[in-house]
Design brief:
Shape: globular
Largest sheet: 9 strands, mixed
Strand order of the largest sheet: 11-10-12-13-21-20-19-16-17
Number of helices: 20
Helix content: 25-40%
Number of strands: 21
Distance between the termini: 38 Å
Radius of gyration: 25 Å
């Protein structure tokens, strides 16, 4: 029988439910239990695919092509899972399913309502997905961690809260542990930890028929015993089931913080289980220590990210995580600086000279330049200028998805001499379309119509940097499976001329016509990929091209390539 841990949040959004859910999964796995995860998003969109990064952060892509909430990326990274699109439930998916069944006559003439039909569909979905393994093994998982997105009291939250209330009785209360994440602010003028927001949040949750078994209190300072006792008194939860989650030096310390407070013991006791021996957290502790040591290192690596959505770091969350994982491998402090691509363009020099000067100052002092994925016209010329600067001045360059297409456009313009070379996305009438719309992609529908999910990339040169990195970092030889999300590709017609001019395409798809990886030989590190390697990066299994980029940016790539570099994190081979 699958056991369920349901994580809710109160007071405000972004309180850390995803980190608590991920940490819970990690700790249960450390005790020997098998885990899967579900994220519930109450928005009406079918999935996250058509949402602007400014709205909801990045769109995370799964192996099966699912475009999902970024929290599923947290689950995959922390618990080392491979989730599917069904592990992300949205209001849109639930209503779409119910309405489809109504049109097919499956409700036998009944009046279709939120209760029971919508609530039953939510519960059916959870039970079905919870039984599917996501850890690469056969058989049902022992636990399913469910994060109920949004904040208690939100209107769109209500059907899911009601479904969770009913779900306790469907599967049995002894199979469910309810964890509520709340805020305990510290008022500067008084210096006292205030419990009223948590009291109100739990009161609202209980009014919906959901009584938390555990309360996790987010705070800036460690939770005081008196604060725990006060929350216990007003919220009808024992003091030993109230856990402080204060600010820590790095994210990897959150599971350790909970473990030190016997969090997992309370979860297991709530669902009538006993621990399976001692937890294995040695490697995780080593990781947390390594990150802390790197963060106080006197020397660091400065990476400049040239993007479009620089106003919200969550827009590039997985790229940031990929860089961080690589920096753990290298053992250097990482500094990521943002440059809005449009600020590098000549028009910005006239309209916003201060921003133009600052953008170029950052770019010219970077140890490495990264151009991530993106869509649309804005900032394209700035990204091309950044790629040109990196190529000409021998600064390590890493392009992801659009970043590969940018590198191709830049090379065609400045090496082949095609001054008007462009992508059909930017200029449909360009005389040199070096990047073209893929023929199989729909031009009328946006959602779920891109080239999505894990696909094979075959190396064409076993001596290239990419092949060396993948073979030594992740033991991938001959080919690699990486996740994609794009509508445009390098124009196959122009590949021979680009190759002849020195732009090496060292990886392609199974047909041999779709280019996936490019490199330049006469450069410390100029590498770009059409896929999104950040989506499969893990804290203890970093992405190979990210590792190469950070090594090169720190001046360590040649040491590593010749076997003279050893990672300070000894778990890496």
């Amino acid at each position: 029988m699958v056991k369920y841990v349901i994580v809710t949040g109160g007071v405000l959004s972004g309180i850390g439910k995803g980190v608590i859910a991920s940490s819970t999964g990690l700790l249960l796995k450390a005790y020997g239990f098998r885990v899967t995860s579900i994220k519930i998003d109450p928005y009406l969109n079918i999935d996250a695919g058509t949402m602007s990064p400014f709205e909801h952060g990045e769109v995370f892509v799964l192996d099966d092509g699912g475009e999902v909430d970024l929290d599923l990326g947290n689950y995959e990274r922390f618990v080392d899972l491979t989730l599917t699109k069904d592990n992300n439930i949205t209001t849109g998916k639930i209503y779409q399913s119910v309405i489809s069944k109504e049109r097919e006559g499956k409700y036998l003439g009944k009046t279709v309502q939120v209760v029971p039909h919508i609530c039953n569909e939510i519960q059916d979905w959870i039970e079905r997905v919870a039984r599917q393994p996501t850890d690469g093994q056969q058989g049902e998982p022992d636990f399913c961690i469910i994060e109920l997105g949004g904040t208690v009291g939100d209107i769109e939250h209500m059907p899911f809260a009601e479904a969770m209330r009913q779900f306790q009785f469907r599967v049995g209360k002894h199979n469910v542990c309810l964890v509520h994440v709340s805020l305990v602010p510290l008022l500067g003028t008084v210096g006292e930890q205030k419990t009223k927001p948590t009291q109100q949040s739990v009161r609202e949750l209980r009014a919906l028929g959901i009584a938390p078994d555990i309360i996790c209190c987010r705070s800036t300072k460690p939770l005081e015993q008196g604060t725990k006792e006060k929350i216990s008194s007003f919220c009808h939860v024992p003091p030993q089931s109230i856990f402080g989650v204060h600010d820590v030096s790095n994210l990897y310390r959150v599971p350790l913080l909970l473990h030190d407070q016997l969090f997992t013991d309370i979860v297991l006791k709530t669902v009538s289980l006993i621990p399976r021996g001692l937890p294995e957290l040695t490697t995780w502790k080593l990781l947390a220590d390594t990150v802390d040591n790197a963060n106080v290192s006197p020397t660091g690596i400065r990476i400049v990210m040239v993007g479009k959505y620089t106003g919200l770091s969550d827009s590039y969350l997985s790229v940031i995580k990929g860089l961080n994982h690589a920096s753990h491998f290298v053992g250097k402090k990482l500094s990521i600086e943002w440059v809005a691509a449009s600020h590098l363009e000549p028009v910005s020099k006239e309209k916003h000279p201060e921003k133009y000067e600052e953008a170029w100052k950052r770019l010219k002092t970077a140890d490495g330049i990264l151009v991530p994925g993106g869509f649309g016209v804005r900032g394209i010329e700035g990204k091309i200028l950044a790629a040109n600067y990196a190529r000409v001045n021998k600064i390590p360059y890493f392009g992801i998805c659009l970043g590969l297409q940018i590198a191709v456009i830049e090379y065609a313009r400045n090496v082949l001499g095609w001054s008007k070379a462009n992508s059909e996305e930017i200029d449909p009438k360009t005389e040199h379309p070096v990047v073209v719309f893929m023929p199989e992609i729909s031009k009328t529908h946006m959602g779920g119509t891109m080239r999505l999910g894990a696909r094979k990339t075959i190396f064409t040169d076993e001596n290239c940097k990419s092949a060396l990195l993948y073979s030594r970092i992740s033991s991938d030889k001959n080919f690699v499976m990486e996740r994609h999300r794009h509508r445009y590709e390098v124009n196959p017609k122009h590949v021979p001329l680009l190759t002849e001019a020195g732009l090496k395409f060292v990886g392609h798809d199974e047909t041999g016509t779709r280019q996936e990886i490019l490199e330049i030989d006469d450069h410390p590190y100029f590498l770009a990929v059409q896929y999104h390697p950040e989506m499969k990066s893990r804290p203890l299994r970093p992405s190979a091209p990210f590792v190469g980029f950070v090594l090169a940016s720190g001046g360590l790539y040649q040491q590593w390539a010749t076997g003279q570099f050893e990672s300070p994190l000894k778990v890496y081979k």
